[in-house]
Design goal:
- This protein is an alpha+beta fold.
- It has helices at 50-58, 100-104, 106-110, 115-128, 144-156, 174-191, 202-208, 226-231, 236-241, 335-341, and strands spanning 10-21, 24-35, 39-43, 65-70, 73-74, 86-88, 162-166, 194-199, 211-216, 219-224, 246-254, 257-260, 263-266, 278-283, 300-310, 314-321, 328-334, 348-352, 359-362.
- A six-stranded mixed β-sheet has the order 6-7-8-3-9-10, sandwiched between helices. Strands 13-12-11-14-19 form a five-stranded antiparallel β-sheet. Strands 2-1-4-5 form a four-stranded antiparallel β-sheet, covered by helices on one side.
């Protein structure tokens, strides 16, 4: 990154990228800038275009139109071998007949580096990924997590300027995934390599990325830091896809007021929505307040607990508005709150929906 006050230069520039398969538009007019040293996640559901975009950047599946510049160099029409990247696939794609050391050094051998330099680089990388004693083993002798480390070391062997990760953790079990995502992020920070990772796992994206690119139907819905994506979703799709969200249907009674079942809820002033518009009022379950409510607290409503699900660190409660039988929302309550307030099925409570935590989208 550049010094304070300076605008960081783009390392990767994607402009007006589109990809068509016959009449099907897989990517539509995508433009994106990635700064050198960033860890960026392409996040979205299956079929949203995230892998297609990654493969276009790599030259593995060239775009129909648009341009890609890497560090000022136009790579739009270059074959993969002439682009500066390393890639790790979900399937690892290791050579089963080569040892771990030979897998890691494969790109260096192809580049005709000297044997001593290859051996030194392979030893360095196996140490970085915690497999220093596994160089003589074959992939079949390793666990899935270890094989993925080997694939990562091989991708980094040629010191590429860009590291591409195509759902690298999705084939692993939950415990290994959590451990490896922290290891990959720590390694990326240490090396400072610009990294793009494709994932459909929101938790992976939130914990690993410097910025997240949320995609849907071949288009970018929002680009932002994990905090921005989670706290200030730009669209209803982002609000629904990233984390849990309550959606309450109503209408905009005034620029800063939404009416639901005859009840007015204050919110931030809305630009671009006319009074009377059908809207969806959104709030995350953890933002529902229930403790120590002042008498004049905004958006105070009476509710009844109709469901209570234990999910480990907290309980998720389904709350029905007592003024409207057909309006309900969920709230996340800590175990301490459950105990202190005696929350149980049928319990009647007052809650508050903080105006600064409410989001409003057109219905």
């Amino acid at each position: 990154m550049n010094g304070a006050g300076e605008v960081p230069m783009s390392y990767l520039e994607v402009r007006n990228l589109s990809k068509r398969f016959g009449d099907f538009v897989a990517l539509g007019d995508i433009s994106l800038d990635i700064v050198e040293g960033e860890f960026v996640c392409f996040l979205g559901p299956s079929g949203c275009g995230k892998t297609t975009l990654l493969r276009a950047i790599a030259g593995l599946d060239p775009q129909t139109s648009g341009t890609i510049h890497q560090k000022g160099r136009d790579v739009s029409a270059l074959p993969p071998a002439q682009r500066d990247f390393g890639i790790v696939f979900q399937s690892y794609a290791l050579f089963p007949n080569l040892t771990v050391a030979d897998n890691v050094g494969y790109g260096l051998v192809s580049r005709r580096d000297k044997k001593a330099a290859i051996a030194a680089r392979v030893t360095e990388l196996l140490g970085l990924v915690g497999l220093l004693d596994s160089g003589a083993k074959y992939p079949a002798q390793l666990s899935g997590g270890q094989q993925q480390r080997v694939a990562l070391a091989r991708a980094l062997a040629t010191a590429p300027g860009l590291l591409l990760l195509d759902e690298p953790l999705s084939a692993l079990d939950a415990r290994v995934r959590v451990r490896l995502r922290h290891e990959i992020k720590a390694l990326q920070r240490r090396l400072g390599v610009t990294t793009i990772m494709v994932t459909h796992d929101q938790e992976e994206a939130l914990t690993m990325a410097d910025r997240i690119v949320v995609m849907n139907h071949g288009a970018i819905e929002q680009v932002g830091t994990p905090q921005e994506i989670y706290r200030r979703p730009a669209t209803a799709f982002v609000a629904d896809f990233v984390g849990s969200m309550n959606f309450l249907s109503g209408k905009l009674a005034a620029p800063d007021t939404v009416e639901i079942a005859g009840r007015a809820f204050r919110c931030a002033a809305q630009d671009g929505l006319a009074p009377g518009s059908a809207v969806r009022l959104c709030i995350r379950p953890e933002d529902v307040r229930v403790r120590d409510l002042p008498a004049d607290v905004a958006n105070r409503v009476a509710v009844e607990v109709t469901e209570l699900d234990f999910v480990g660190a907290f309980c998720r409660a389904t709350l029905k508005l007592r003024e409207a039988d057909d309006v309900a929302l969920t709230a996340d309550f800590s175990s301490n709150l459950i105990r202190d307030l005696g929350v149980e099925l049928g319990r009647k409570l007052d809650i508050a929906l903080p105006p600064d935590r409410l989001r409003v989208f057109a219905a």
